[in-house]
Amino acid sequence: MIDTPAPELERALNPAQQEAVDHVHGPMLVLAGAGSGKTRVLTTRIARLIDRHGVPPDRIFAVTFTNKAAGEMKHRIGRLLARDPSGLWIGTFHSLSARLLRREAPRLGFGSQFTIYDEDDRLGLIRRLMDQRGHSTKLFPPRAVQAVISSAKNRMTPPSELAAAAGPFDRLVQVSADVYAAMGPALKAANAMDFDDLLLHPLTLFAEHPDRLQYYQNKFSFVLVDEFQDTNRAQYQLIRLLGAHGNVCVVGDDDQSIYGWRGADVRNMQDFLKDFPSARLVRLEENYRSTQVVLDAANGVIAENTGRLGKTLTTRRGGGEAVTLLAAADERDEAEWVVRELERRSAAGDWRYEDMAVLYRTNAQSRALEEAFRRAGIPYRLIGSISFYERREVKDLLAYLRLLTNPADDEAFLRAVGVPRRGLGETSLAILERTAVQWHKPLLATAAGAEAIAELRPNVREAFRALAAFIEGLAGRIRDKPPAEVLEEVIRAIDYEAVLHAEGPEGADRWENVRELVASAANWSEVVAEGAEGTPLERFLAEAALLSSADSVVGREDGVTLMTLHTAKGLEWPVVVLTGLEQGLFPLARAEEQPDGLEEERRLCYVGLTRAKDKLYLTWARARRRGGELRPGMASRFLRALPAAILDERRTTSLWAPDWRSAGRAQRRSGESAFARGDRAGPRRVESAPAGQPEEASQDAPRYVKGERVRHRRFGSGTIQGLTGTGRDLKVSVAFDDAEVGVKQLLVAYAGLEREWESA
DNA sequence: GTTTCGTAAATTTTT
DNA sequence: TTTACGAAAC
Question: Is the CB of A728 within 7 Å of strand B?
Fold first, then answer.
């Protein structure tokens, strides 16, 4: 392998890193380029604070982007200190806020055992509120309403302001504002908070109880924030308040801001310098991760963005293996090529599977990759996609646990009431809900008094009463029992195994997941959830609610890593494969329509490229299945931003591929396809520019796909309807735009078709 | 009230 | 290709 730098611990800090570590008191903004060792700066700084400056760990408030990152950072600090930094407040904004709120909830009118509502719970609540308030869920999709409300919350806009801002004809926003206004009280009644509330409630607390703000300002004498470019306004406010004493260190990279759609606002970086005028600005511009070739690729892409703060990344790792650019026929072809290539490199002893990652824009793309890995028998691990805690069977059981700790949790009640089937359907529940509203009681409490509801049939009353009695009885018995035991008890009581097995073959898989849940709960109990308050069950639930998708790992540890580009932020591998580089997919079509959308996609691409230490593969497919339909695509515009000198272009053997560089340009010089032959042997090292002479065009027959736009010399433009035959007998049926011509069957070998976008 | 079957719709990223 | 929802049957 290529000049790998010395292990991190042995390398001395560079002057800029040293400066960031040495600066103890007063605000500081660290502009840290990709791979510039910012994690190391943060961990070293925290360790120093503790052992050289005698700061007690519980007076340090350190924010990371994922729980996993927090765990790793804590581990590294422990290694530096040679002891466990117990008491340290380190975690995501959401988990740290939740921890703070457990103590302060009563001051805000919540119980300290409040539930954290996930996306589904919140959606369910919105649906019910819409029903109650007579808003049609057909005209206004609850998802859309939820999106409006969430974005208002992220901008810290209260319901009244949202209502005022809604135009007279903007019914969606009007409805959303109405639901939003009702949602606060409803959540409070259910003793629940959603993800956004976790960030907003601390701000409310500090506004209403200045003494509490003062307390936490005094308590946390040092505040540190990683991935600062991805904080939203509420998060920034929290930092500004807690760090008012000035000992605030934020670390970020404006080029890696990729969560704008979630309310993140890069302006926080500029505002920080305004709000803390004495802030020291430190730039980490030396990259220790990647080869020059990788940086050239990344710089080529990001250079097209405007309004950057400006950074120049350098590396001492000159040269490097060229970036392999692959054109495939479709997503399956792409996946198979990737798997074969990684297998080849592994067999050649170049890298191990665990040193490789395959990244993609959307979770849906993981399917084809997974299948290819499985077919080839190559180990892989899939991160994210469907979180374990989002599975139906897991949520069903957790609903019972939630109800045990928080009897007001109506969403949990509505889930539990249907598992197992109790003969309680839509009508009975509607009556129960109506009564609950009248009585001003949670559903569980209302169910306990169901005997008094005359509208209900006697057997329904009894069913409600029995369910309530069951929960209450269980709640009395469990107390401080470990979560795994409580789970077992619930499973036994509702005979969940039988319930699942009655569902047929799928039920067996689900039962497996249930066993896994119990096992993970048992395993969890052994770890001391440090610092948190409440019973073990409460802490288990709190943690489960805040687990991120990055925490869900399926597959073998020693395998190739598969994840989305978003999840890959902050990580690195010797080999990185970026797939699906097509217009419409990456960058996403939707993103390109929004003002800053394309720039954010470009930053996402930059994040992906800079994950690689030694070797980059970039792939795209001429066609891709989207919703069952095979759709043609063209190479991503990001590919055109790459310097030609560092590229090694290839195609899969069966593919006739056009010169993607000329796509969309005025003219194309014939015979100048930039694609090399697919069978070219061995990697190529790039020492310096220029390389990559134009190669011979492929001699394979052109390959068309259904839906593709083509042009015929006589008939004009049309769309391919279908394909029949193979080789020289390959026929296409084309529906021409000219209605007079209609649909024609043409032999590809003679028709002389051109792709429309190529012949422009 | 529950199950089953059919049709329609849909696919961005995540704490 | 898979999921979600609605209608009709059971």
Answer: no
**Whether A195 CB is under 7 Å from strand B:** yes
Which of the residue ranges A36-40, A664-668, A697-701 would you say has the lowest mean pLDDT? A697-701
Q: Does nucleic acid strand B have an atom less than 7 angstroms from the CB of A261?
A: yes
Give every CB contact of residue A120 below 8 A, 6+ residues apart in sequence: A390, A395, A411
Could you report the per-residue pLDDT of A397-444, keeping only the tens digit for each? 999 999 999 999 999 999 999 888 888 888 888 889 889 999 999 999
**pLDDT of amino acid A54:** 92
- Residues constituting chain A: 760
Task: Please write the tens of the pLDDT for every residue from A490-510.
Answer: 999 888 888 888 777 777 778
pLDDT in tens, A535-566: 888 888 888 888 777 777 778 888 999 999 99
Q: Is A227 a catalytic residue?
A: yes
What is the band of A697 on the pLDDT scale with cuts at 50, 70, 90?
very low
CA A441 – C1' B1 distance (Å)?
26
Query: Rounded CA gap, A745 and A632, in Å?
Result: 20
Single-letter amino acid, residue A376: A
Query: Within A3-112, where are the H helices?
Result: 15-22, 38-51, 67-81, 93-104
**Percentage of chain A exceeding pLDDT 90:** 52
Catalytic residue among A38, A289, A602, A651, which?
A38
Closest CA-bearing residue to C1' of B12: A362
A325 CA to B13 C1' distance (Å) = 24
Provide the CA A421 to C1' B2 distance, Å, integer: 9
Q: Is A286 a catalytic residue?
A: no
- On average, the pLDDT of chain A sits at 85
User: Cα–Cα distance between A498 and A508 in angstroms, integer?
Assistant: 10
The separation, in Å, between residue A566 CA and nucleotide B15 C1' comes to 12
Contacts of A16 (CB under 8 A, 6+ apart): A282, A283, A284, A285, A286
Among A305-309, A490-494, A624-628, where is mean pLDDT lowest?
A: A624-628
CA distance A115 to A406: 7
Protein CA A382 to sugar C1' B11 (Å): 19
Instruction: List, in sequence order, every residue forming a beta bridge with A739; answer none if it has no partner.
Output: none
Q: Cβ of A627 < 7 Å from strand C?
A: yes
Does A688 have pLDDT greater than 60? no
Instruction: Indicate if CB(A56) is under 7 A from strand B.
Output: no
Q: Whole-number Å distance, CA A491 to C1' B2? A: 23
**A611 a catalytic residue:** yes
Q: Give which of A378, A206, A289 is closest to A34, Cα–Cα.
A: A289
Q: Is the CB of A492 under 7 A from strand B?
A: no
Report how far residue A136's alpha carbon sits from residue A127's, in angstroms, rounded to the nearest whole number: 9
Closest among A444, A436, A449, A448 to A413, alpha carbons compared: A444
Hits for CB < 7 Å against strand C across A residues 636-675: none
Inter-residue contact A369 to A579 (CB < 8 Å): yes
Residue A528 predicted with pLDDT over 50: no
Q: A17, A39, A292, A564: which is the annotated catalytic residue? A: A39
A413 touches strand B (CB under 7 A): no
A39 assigned to active site: yes
Q: What is the pLDDT of residues A346-387, one digit of tens each?
A: 999 999 999 999 999 999 899 899 999 999 999 999 988 766
- Cα-atom radius of gyration of chain A, to the nearest Å? 29
pTM for this model (two decimals): 0.83
Tell me the three state secondary structure of residue A598.
Answer: helix
Cβ distance A391 to A554 under 8 Å?
no
Q: Is A256 a catalytic residue?
A: yes
Bases of chain C within 7 A of a CB of the protein: 1-2, 6
